[in-house]
Amino acid sequence: MSVERPHIEPGRLFIAGEWREAEAGGRRDVVDPSTGKVVATVAEADQADLDAAVAAAREAFDEGPWSRTPARERSRVLHRVGELIRERADEIAAVESLDVGKPVTLCRAVDVETAAETYEYYSALAQSLDGATRQIPIPAHAYTRRDPVGVCGLITPFNFPLILSSSKLAPALAAGNTVVHKPAEDTSLSALLMADILTDAGVPAGVVNVVTGGAAVGGALLRHHSVDKIAFTGSTRIGRVVAGAAGQQLKPVTVELGGNAPHILFEDADMEKAVGAVIKGFVYNTGQFCMGAPRLLVHSSLHDTVVGILTQAVPGVPVGDPFDPATVVGPMAGERHLENVERYVELARKDGGQVVVGGERLELGGGYYYKPTVITGLDNDARTVQEEVFGPVLTVQSFDTEDEAVALANSTAYGLAAGLHTSDLARAHRVAARLEAGIVWVNDWAMLDPSMPFGGVKQSGYGRESGPEALQEYTKTKSVVISLA
């Protein structure tokens, strides 16, 4: 039985603990990607709205209680956030599913659960923000402090709104910062819902501010002179702009950018487990996953067998209404994302690729659906292999030796995630060490936990999210040396 779609009230900006309309009165449509129909509107912020949000965050940091609140109290509030997420799990999952198009059952099991776990994890970690006493070879008492950075501008993408905002908000708040959050223009509903939850949990007014709108407001946020740090997740193209703007102001920035992960199947892989992971790796979230695995590298002795299995199995993956509990693959998040996938599949055909599964839209209820697609026969320099497609598309290449597999895996500009399947433990460690990626999975895909840091190398960005490493990204270290002479 299908889960009922939620009714969404018109969204407003959340500034200084209050809901308000945009200064200029602008509105933006929210479209249900499974039907293509407008289901609500949200406020379209402008420079005046952003200035108000940043001013509220600055006042809350400089004058308000949060940065001076004992870590134990911040921990209690963050733990309460996790509890409220669990209490409102069905509502949050329905909103996230409506906004992004991902299956509601996966939203409930993965996105909502991960968000709750993230706040709970940083609730515990908040109390570890201590400095250290140092021994130095002069008569002095020396120690270090770890202080919050200040006002943090958080810019999040369309594909995992709840998880990726939580992975920034939780450590930023745990460290005592205040924030201005600019969610993706197309998928901002869960960010507005979370503003309510954070307030109910006890986060003071002005500590968290949410401004919705397009690229202009995001650009103004990252260039704002009163913002002390930027955390951005999005495309590599925009990431370069973000890093450049931060560099002009010598402002700390973390950027988690695009990915194009390789998935290597060695000849000694557990075939049943490996194929399941391969399918999960490229269809999860309709392929709109920066750590997805759109490149399958398979030992030449297994190539035809694996392609045959995929040809039989992939068409059976349930694609459809995200509010149907049986659905595994929902629609793309929007029309432009669907058109981008179509463009890359056509490029593959022109480059001599053979589409053995899928390769076309799925006409269903007016939504933005694309059939999971498997492509063989492409050279390694084909654009569909080298570039980030960001859709349910898998390219298959073969290799003969371990060195060749590693060379193919590392051949793109990206380095966010990678994976391999083997029953040889020594090979697993050896190959994992050679893969240029921020996270490597062995014999599965997308095993994630808030305690494990992730982030990119090469064109996939720098800095880390999750784990204690993320908490460090939101602090600054100060040394204090007191003369005893």
UniProtKB/TrEMBL annotation:
The keyword Aminoacyl-tRNA synthetase does not apply. The active site is at 256. Keywords: Oxidoreductase. InterPro entries: Ald_DH/histidinol_DH, Ald_DH_C, Ald_DH_CS_GLU, Ald_DH_N, Aldehyde_DH_dom. SUPFAM superfamilies: ALDH-like. Residues 19-480 form the Aldehyde dehydrogenase domain. Belongs to the aldehyde dehydrogenase family. This is Aldehyde dehydrogenase family protein.
